[in-house]
Amino acid sequence: MDEVEGVINGTYDYTQLKGDTGPLVYPAGFVYIFTALYYITSSGANIRLGQYIFAVFYLITLLLVFRVYCRTKKVPPYVFFFMCCASYRIHSIFVLRLFNDPVAMMLLFAAVNLFIDGHWSLGCGLYSLAVSVKMNVLLFAPGLLFLLLSEFGLIRMIPKLALCANIQLLLGLPFLLENHVGYVSQAFDLGRQFMFKWTVNWRFLPEWLFLNRYFHFVLLAAHLLTLLLFALRRWKRQGESPFELFKEPGKRKVPAQKTTVNQIVLILFTSNFIGMCFSRSLHYQFYVWYFHTLPYVLWSRGVKKMAHLLRVLILGLIELSWNTYPSTCSSSIALHVCHFVVLLCLWLAPPLHPAGPAETQAKAPVKDKCQ
């Protein structure tokens, strides 16, 4: 409320906007949404009303997630109990802390629903809105880029990317006109330093190493390399040249197959999960970035040989790691071990192409219905 109050008072220079928790470091979409909440909640004084609004956001998010899971038919029904009722941390993030992370993820899951229905342009527009609330949504971007290349090729993909960029420009226009360098450097600061005392995933490291820029570079390199390996060895059709993806589907040597719902969801969720594995730091509110995707990642075809009890155990250990405050060496190591096991299972899984018989039953339409 302090941060958006500066905008309400006429300050559009991002370098001058700050609150009790520090400078404003979120894109313009955050400002507009929380400005609306500012007026609805009487300048932020009516916290109870704000909690009711975020409870609605929580229910909408669950409905969007359930629809994705209903379309994929990969996760047993009993898992939804854990998703709804078993996470104190997620409930705290939504209706106690009132962070912007839940708003960004609600928009993201709405975009995923549009993607699996074949509404790629609308989905890209909503995805860009989610990015404008918080940058963590960019962790889905590599997977989305791969899907757009697969569906449309390079030339037909450009309008979708232009739509995303234009939405960012339109939302940020008042701030860009005032101080474009300040807006871009503050709202899209990829090199921002995190505080060691809040880290969930790197508590077992000494603080000097946690803050070391070379350590950050190694994590970034590992992140990009892992994404590249998954794209070339697990997402791409076997035997097909990567350069074929740049061509329109009808002009490729091997006729393009329709992308199934499960392929869309698995690529997007895996892309985000890889980003979480190699994050420079995870704070407690970041749990919502991947909490609702974990059941699908665990029960997808990628880890189908894993026993149900082991899957539930991994969910439980991840939940325990995020609920340990302050984080400890044991909790952060346990979190990394769980991440590694899931990532290894995803890597050892059969490639996505060609699609198996079970997946061909739920295909997403390739046609962009917005064109």
Can you walk through the features of this model?
With 371 residues, the protein is mainly alpha-helical. It contains 14 helices and two strands; from the N terminus they run H-E-E-H-H-H-H-H-H-H-H-H-H-H-H-H. Helix 1 crosses helix 2, helix 7 packs parallel to helix 8 (141-187) and helix 10 runs antiparallel to helix 11 (261-277).
- CA gyration radius, whole angstroms: 21 Å
Strands side by side in the biggest sheet: 1-2
Ends apart, CA distance between termini: 39 Å
Task: Provide the helix percentage.
Answer: 55-70%
How would you classify the helix and strand content by structural class? Answer: mainly alpha
Characterize the biggest β-sheet. 2 strands, antiparallel
Helix and strand sequence: HEEHHHHHHHHHHHHH
Provide the fold topology:
Layout: H1 2-8, E1 18-19, E2 22-23, H2 28-40, H3 47-72, H4 79-85, H5 88-95, H6 101-116, H7 120-133, H8 141-187, H9 207-210, H10 213-235, H11 261-277, H12 294-299, H13 308-323, H14 329-348
Antiparallel strand pairs: 1-2
